[in-house]
Amino acid sequence: MIVVDDEAFISSANFTASAQERNIEAGVHFRQASLAMALRRQFDTLVAKKRLRRLPLS
User: Residue 32: inside a domain, yes or no?
Assistant: First the structure.
């Protein structure tokens, strides 16, 4: 999941040989500020509770 300002992209895509050859991968991109902010808050809460870990961008 990627959230930037009022946009978000959520995808199940995996970059493996199986994903490219056998699986059906899906994703959605939307521009709705309220939904993007809600997603960000949800994931920030999970990070704060140490249920998820933020990955470095580099």
Answer: yes
Could you tell me which residues come within 8 angstroms of residue 44 by beta carbon, excluding any fewer than 6 positions away? none
Total number of domains constituting the chain: 1
Distance of CA 25 to the CA centre of its chain: 14
Within-domain flag for 13: yes
Domain of residue 34, residue span: 2-48
Classify residue 21 as left (phi > 0), alpha (psi -120 to 50) or beta: alpha
For residues 5-33, average pLDDT: 86
Task: Compute the distance between CA of residue 45 and CA of residue 13 in angstroms, rounded to an integer.
Answer: 24
Residue with tokens 């300002």: 5
- Alpha carbons 17 and 58: distance in angstroms, whole number: 24
Indicate the pTM of the whole model.
0.67
